[in-house]
Amino acid sequence: MDFDPKKNYYDILDIPETATPEEAKKAFKKLAVKHHPDRGGDKAKFQEINEAFQVLWDERKKSQYDAYRKWWFSGGFGDGGFWWFGGQGGFDVDFWDLFGSMFGGGFWGGEESRANVGGDDIQVSISISFEESFLGTSKKIAYSRNVKIANIQDKTCSTCHGRGRVAKRVQTPFGIMQSQWACPDCGGLGKTYTKDGKSLDNPFEKRKDTIEVKIPEGINDGVYIKFTGKGNEWLDGHDGDLYIKINITASSLYERKGDNLYIKVPVTIFDLVLGGEHEIPHPEGKFKVKIPKATQIGDMVKIANKGFGKSGIFGKKGDLYLIPKVDIPKKLSKEEEKLWQQLAAL
Ligand SMILES: [Zn+2]
């Protein structure tokens, strides 16, 4: 990759000269998201950030850059302009990997990989209640994504002749060096686009979309539901995917462990000693359960097949466990106290 010793890459990434590669990467990610042309950012600014990052996150290149800069400022080059690192370095792979994970390939995919790149994946999170996670539900999600602009004309890019990448070979004091990068005129697409005679930066526009998400009963917290092709659109059908992340709001009433459902039920000491009937809450609706006689403190009352999951021949439902929470009377009347004393004397 080229670098220009006159440019201060540290200023561009807003990091000190002592910054580690990790710090450079962090700064780059932040700025790249902000300035990515795919997201309406300025292409030139983005390329500058890109260029700075490629140099500063690689210790070898960073030290070369620092050396070049020293040399440059001491008058070594004259007005030589750009310089290139050797093409063999790990940069291409690492860089596209990093970028791929941020934007799913996006505009900046290389020539060889272009057939494989696609639109970005999109992730949206939604929250559902504990009860909804038990019963299943359906939600309408609104989100925005890139879609192809209708009725546009395209032309093979004259800068890269459709390859999407440009390369340069340059004689330097260290021998011939070569590098290639995404074509600046078509952003790596290999084509340029116009609509009604006006040229477009890219053939996509943001559009609001809604999607109906059927959430199955018994879904777990943190699960993703994938909608293939519902992410950002791409040119030749390799549209990105939409991932809906399900967050289940914690409940003060219920708890889930595996497919079992746990409910805390307030009871009296009489309920435990003598047994008693209790109405308990349940996502499917309240119902009455019997607390057996002589239930011990700490014992749970199991009710089979009232937990999570599907019932039926192939399905296996979890169980429901009641956790009796004993309320010891805080205040006794004289008479009550006498009765308790009589009990105690037995
Ligand atoms: Zn081009």
- Oligomer classification: single chain
- DSSP summary, beta strand count: 18
Second-tier CATH architecture of the domain at 254-330: Sandwich
Query: Which runs of at least 5 residues are low in confidence (pLDDT < 50)?
Result: 74-117
Numbering strands along the chain, what is their spatial order in the largest sheet?
13-14-18-17
The whole-angstrom Rg is 32 Å
Shape: elongated
Outline the structure in words.
By secondary structure, this protein is α+β, with helices and mostly antiparallel strands. The chain has a domain at 254-330: Sandwich (HSP40/DNAj peptide-binding domain). The chain has eight helices and 18 strands. A hairpin with a 2-residue loop joins strand 8 and strand 9 (198-200). It is elongated, with a radius of gyration of 32 Å. The chain binds zinc ion (ZN). Zinc ion binds next to loops.
Describe the protein's topology.
Blueprint: E1 2-3, H1 9-13, H2 21-35, H3 43-56, H4 59-73, E2 83-84, H5 91-103, E3 122-128, H6 130-135, E4 137-148, E5 153-156, E6 165-172, E7 175-182, E8 191-195, E9 198-200, E10 204-215, E11 224-227, E12 242-248, E13 254-257, E14 260-268, H7 269-274, E15 276-280, E16 287-291, E17 301-303, E18 320-327, H8 334-345
Parallel strand pairs: 3-12, 14-18
Antiparallel strand pairs: 1-2, 4-10, 5-8, 6-7, 8-9, 11-12, 13-14, 15-16, 17-18
Helix pairs in contact: 2-3
The structure holds zinc ion.
The site of zinc ion has 7 residues, from loops.
